[in-house]
Amino acid sequence: SVIRRADYRAPDWLIPDIALDFDLDPALTRVHATLSVTRNGDHERPLRLDGDGLIPLEVKVDGRILDQQQWHLDAGALIIPLSGDAHSVETLVELAPESNSKLMGLYASGGLLCTQCEAEGFRRITFFSDRPDILSRYSVRLAADKARFPILLANGDPIEQGDLDGGRHWALWNDPFPKPCYLFALVAGDLACNADRFVTMSGREVALGIWVKENDLPRTAHAMEALKNSMAWDERVYGREYDLDVFNIVAVADFNFGAMENKGLNIFNSRYILADPETATDIDYDGVEGVVAHEYFHNWSGNRVTCRDWFQLSLKEGFTVFRDQNFSADMGSHAVKRIEDVRILRAAQFQEDSGPLAHPIRPESYMEISNFYTSTIYNKGAEVIRMMALMLGAERFRAGTDLYFDRHDGQAATCEDFVAAMEEGGGIDLGQFRLWYEQAGTPHVRALLTHDPLTQSVELTLEQTIPPTPGQPVKQPMAIPLRTALFDPATGGHRGDELLMLTEAQQRFTFTDFASTPILSINRGFSAPVIVETNRSQADLAFLSARDDDPFARYEAMQQLMVNVLVGRIAGQQVDESAVVAAIRAMLTDPTLDPAFVAETIRLPSEAYLGDQMPVVDPDAIHAARDALQARIGAELEPLWRDVHAKTKANAFAISPAAKGARKLHNAALHYLVAAGAPDGPAIAFTQFGEADNMTERQAALGTLANGDSAEREAALDIFYNRYCADALTLDKWFQTQAFALHPDVADQVEALGRHKDFTLTNPNRVRALYGAFAGNQWGFHHESGKGYRLVADCIIALDKLNPQTAARLVPPLGRWKRFDQGRAAMMRAELQRILAEPGLSKDVTEQASKSLE
Ligand code: ARG
Ligand code: ZN
Fold first, then answer.
1. pLDDT over 90 (residue 412)
2. 646 preceded by cis ω (within 30°)?
3. Is 370 in the pocket of ligand 1 (CB under 6 A)?
4. What is the C-alpha end-to-end distance of the chain, expressed in Å?
5. Residues 696-716: tens digit of each pLDDT
């Protein structure tokens, strides 16, 4: 049951056209499909149509009903031997969307009927050749009860609609662009529309619609703004124009991940559409903007040019993440966006890359493709595109993408096609660079700077090593682009900002005319997704944290300064913490700095990130050290925190970058004030909680209170619950804030919350809010009793029976056992074994748990 990249074979049969007829009903839906099939190449193989849980009620070829001997089922697939080269094949199946708890295929969510097909959900709807290199033109007829399902949507353009007997009605949709079946979608329900329009660069008018439940309409403005901005941005930056007369987005409450780029009919997890100041944080607002852009950008990077097979997933996902990251940077602050993106990369992807589930951005094999929608495919994939864009420069990169879109429009392409287009369009040799697609693992780069006063020269020695990963014990040196500058500590200036290409295992770079030792600024802008180790002193880092003109490098210097202090403290060494306090003071009192940048930079590295810096993660020691440093920074700068907190108090709510920055710093100040142990800390937090006119400040206050015990904590949690218990997305925050709290009893609290009447395994957002957040809470999840492991494993076992895809996403935190002490490692392994022993375990969880034990 392992699928290998090397086994790719062109399809035996093509399906240029498909007509689908849906008779929709939550309990019993009938799907009639008519496929035009044509033999592809010279072979005698039968037609094989994938199916998952389908029973053919009728099979016809060229209008004639086949009897049971003329077809058979093989592993769910319908096999039909055919003699000629072109036929019309019809099938009829019945579905029960309301009992589809996997949320793949056609399912019911909050009174709606909707679909999710990527990667292999279409085979749960009808028999079809469910692979992305089968491109078909779709014509879709929907019929449903008019009162319950007044709105009927599908891909492409609306053609016709009408009424039927018995209170039913129908609609016909037609998508002129041939597409793979994973982009198929339909929605039926009682939906209201935020309608708008966009005129494309060639003057075509597009009708835009964001469809939600009537009472959610006021929460769709930000998503609509983001959509129009995305459409304009893709025209301006990539020359890509929208291609249909309508573009619809539907928000649904039950969804396995963020959103889906179905052609002309994007379907979203409602958390990435709905936003208003009362219920959404600034992070939520940014999430809406970023995901709306991401799905829209897929119209070119994914839909017009799609993937040949699922091993090429990063072709569309890495590139599209890169595009949405740059869009968001253009809409706000480039510096802050880069810091946020690198933090996500390090938190999720670096951990994945150093564990048992490490895989290259173009994997070689899989059991269940759903398990490969990973941070590696998405975020590292984006970094690989970013490196190419950096090496080429904006103009040549654009020439490369123009060539790529032009050459492969209407095709199912490969990662190699993309790289080849970059080489030709951009005029560069990417021979060695291709290793980024093949080799897993995060490269380590050791950078040593030495100065020779006699020759007045500086030598930079760079050494790369790539750790072994599953199936890849030995690695070849990669091509690593490192933006580098050398600072003169006397003047504060630096020479150049050079792009050094590290291509060998060890390489030396010489710089002349340096009277004294400069300070090294390297991997500026995080030009390569690598771990850099340097011989820079704390004084050098303090200098860079104050003077580096590359904002990312400045942030990085500050983080490294803090990491060194914390790692030293954990190791029981005497460490000078005053440099950290001084650096934070300097940032807080520099009026020229962007408050959002300051807030990012003065934040201590997370407990998980600190764990990544240690040979064996010690969750308790990490927590204690970080807590103590936080308290010290809080106490020593207490007047400053009070001052910053008072000065950043907002007037009227706005969603501008300046207002968001002020709120970020406001919350950071509150956090340090409370950490300082100021007697009035909880009261100040409680006041902020009560008076805030926005969720960003309210949730931050709640989160700060949740870390400790106080009357204010309990009161705030009660108030929050009572105010928002009817709003699922906001109630998720109540669960999440508690699961994420750095509270000594968090495991017990999560256990109790798992039995709360508002907890349910049927809604993936709720599961992620409680168990997903908890599994990311290093101190709580790795409680020495093993209770955290048991809770998450229990959840995986129970959820697997309903929704294997979402259950499998909770496995990786248990797979990191090698990073922990023997006691914890044994308990984590025991839970993985307990999961694997479960009868009837899904392919999804089996793959993740068994690989995690290896
Ligand atoms: N293509 C979607 C997106 O990134 C995500 C699909 C995820 N599918 C899955 N089986 N996990 O925009
Ligand atoms: Zn995507």
1. yes
2. no
3. yes
4. 18
5. 999 999 999 999 999 999 999
CA 262 to ligand 1 centroid distance, Å: 10
Name every residue whose Cβ is closer than 8 Å to that of residue 266 and which is 6 or more positions away in sequence: 247, 248, 249, 250, 259, 260, 295, 296
Encoded amino acid at 127, one letter: F
Paired residues of 464 in beta bridges: 445
Find the ligand nearest to 257 CA: 1
* Three state DSSP letters for 16-31: EEEEEEEECCCCCEEE
Residues with CB under 5 A from ligand 2 (ion): 317, 320
Segment 828-833 mean pLDDT: 98
pLDDT-derived band of residue 652, with 50, 70 and 90 as boundaries? confident
* 316 Cα: distance to centroid of ligand 2 (angstroms): 7
pTM of the model: 0.99
Residue 150, φ and ψ in degrees, nearest 5: -65, -25
295 is catalytic: yes
Q: How confident is the model at residue 496 (pLDDT cuts 50, 70, 90)?
A: confident
CA proximity to 32, closest of 22, 47, 45, 18: 22
For 43-69, letters b (16+ CB in 10 Å) and e give eeebbbbbbbebebeebbbeeeeeeee
**Residue 133 carries which side chain, given as an amino acid letter?**
D
Assess whether the C-beta atom of 324 lies below 6 angstroms from ligand 1: no
Q: Is the pLDDT of residue 123 over 90?
A: yes
CA angle 707, 708, 712 (to 5 degrees): 105
pLDDT digits (tens, 9 = 90+) for 622-646: 999 999 999 999 999 999 999 999 9
Rounded mean pLDDT, 283-290: 98
Instruction: Give the per-residue pLDDT at 495.
Output: 87
What distance in Å separates the CA atoms of residue 523 and residue 245, rounded to the nearest whole number? Answer: 44
Residues 6+ apart with CB under 8 A from 837: none
Q: Is 460 in the pocket of ligand 1 (CB under 6 A)?
A: no
Tell me: pLDDT of 500 over 80.
yes
Among the bound ligands, the one closest to the CA of 104: 1
Decide whether any atom of ligand 1 lies within 6 Å of the 257 Cβ: yes
The answer to whether the CB of 317 is under 6 A from ligand 1 is yes
Alpha carbon nearest to ligand 1 atom 1, residue: 260
Q: Quick one: what percent of the chain has pLDDT higher than 70? A: 100
Q: Which of 90, 261, 295, 697 is catalytic?
A: 295
User: Edge-to-edge strand order for the sheet containing 246-252?
Assistant: 192-199, 205-212, 246-252, 265-269, 259-260
Of all ligands present, the nearest one to the C-alpha of 118 is 1
- Best residue among 107, 115, 118 to mutate for probing ligand 1's pocket (most ligand atoms within 8 Å of CB) is 118
Quick one: which atom of ligand 1 is closest to the CA of 259?
A: 12
> 């202090």: which residue's tokens?
565
Query: What is the per-residue pLDDT for 354?
Result: 98
pLDDT, one tens digit per residue, over 42-97 is: 999 999 999 999 999 999 999 999 999 999 999 999 999 999 999 999 999 999 99
pLDDT level of residue 538 (50, 70, 90 thresholds): very high
Q: Mutate which of 52, 103, 181, 260 to test ligand 1's pocket (most atoms within 8 Å of Cβ)?
A: 260
Going by pLDDT thresholds of 50, 70 and 90, the confidence category of residue 650 is confident
Q: Write out the DSSP string of 615-647.
A: SSB-HHHHHHHHHHHHHHHHHHTHHHHHHHHHH
